[in-house]
Amino acid sequence: MLKSDARRVVSRVQAQAAGMGLRGARRAVLAAVLELLPARHSRVTDDAVRLYQLADLIVEAGGRRYCDKTIGRALASLAVDELVTYVPARGRGNRALVAIHARFVDDVEVLQRDETGRVIVPKTVTFSEAPSSYRPKANYPPTPRSTEDQAASDSRPTGVEIHPAEVREVFAGLPEAYQDLGTRTRWRLGGLIRRQLGRGWRPDQIIAILAAPLPGGVKSPLHLAMWRLAKNQTGSGPRLAPLQQAWDTAAAETARRRSDLAVEDSLASVTAATTPDQRGHALRAAAVQFGAITNPKTALVAAARAAARRFPNHTQGTALQRWADSVLEDHCAAAAEPMEQLPVLANLGVELAISTVTGHCVNCQCTPGTLRAELPIPVPVCDDCWAAHAEPEFEEDYAA
Questions:
Q1: pTM higher than 0.85, yes or no?
Q2: DSSP per residue over 101-165, as a string?
Q3: How far apart are CA 130 and CA 136, in angstroms?
Q4: What does the pLDDT look like over 216-264, one tens digit per residue?
Q5: Where is this region: Disordered (predicted)?
């Protein structure tokens, strides 16, 4: 029934009980029945009541805990006074029926319930006719991805496709010792063969290992097959190994390209914030701090990162200048020599690295040069120096 009807029924019963002057267990049990049926569950009858439920409600309300016999007697007394309807439980495991007397619910519409306790409604109630997000969506195909993205996102291959015909081929080529195995042992041997096929091994290679002469006194051919395959077929087979090598090559190329792009971005940032003289000064300090320079670009980027860590509150150009000065001063103090006589200044690798980064000619150091890929080490050389010192075959290529 509705909440408003439940409150009306409770008020009617309480008004009738107030005129009767109930006391003790009868008053506490009636209050527990009103709390259990109309107040909490909006019901007027319940055929599955345990007496300890009423005892618990009395204790929750601040009363004493009555025994089941006292509660049963109180319910029977209230039924005689036509306040409730009470049918005691009979037999082990049965439950009692407790209800509000019919004279209090004549004008109250009670909802019909089925045997499970659910409310029976005459028709389905539709609350909204608008499209709902809870309705199933159309089964659209997945968005196609490009082959490039799919290759970059796929993981390293760990197996190849297994054909049932290959498993049967291996079983057909096994010696007689493996043909008379039991069903369960044969099933385990089939799983072992499928594992080797999935790792990329060919059926003839598996047969060659398992068909080898058997030692005398073999009690378990399955364990012998497991031992032979584990010792003679390790790692990936000829079918899987090329796939893994191709994936490793592509992954290494992707990592190298990503690293080169990161270095180029960092180098562009350093170049925009510094002058050629500052970059040359920083490369000299990088040679002192990190050793011989093999790649001037990465050396300059490493120097800029070290400067940013040491002087985080300065701009990139200022931090790089201060870092280079501090490194060279420390080295000069440790060697007890003036900076003009530092051995790093006579280092050919450092000079070539400085010229490569600054773009000046390695010969005259004053004119912007062109990077000459014909040389063993590509360095910038201006046109005048190139025409004066290049080999004849290089001059012919340059003239062409």
A1: no
A2: -GGGSTT--PPPB-TTSPBP-SSPPP---S--TTSPPP-PPPPP--HHHHHHHSPPP------HH
A3: 14
A4: 888 888 898 899 899 998 889 999 999 999 999 999 999 999 988 988 8
A5: 131-158
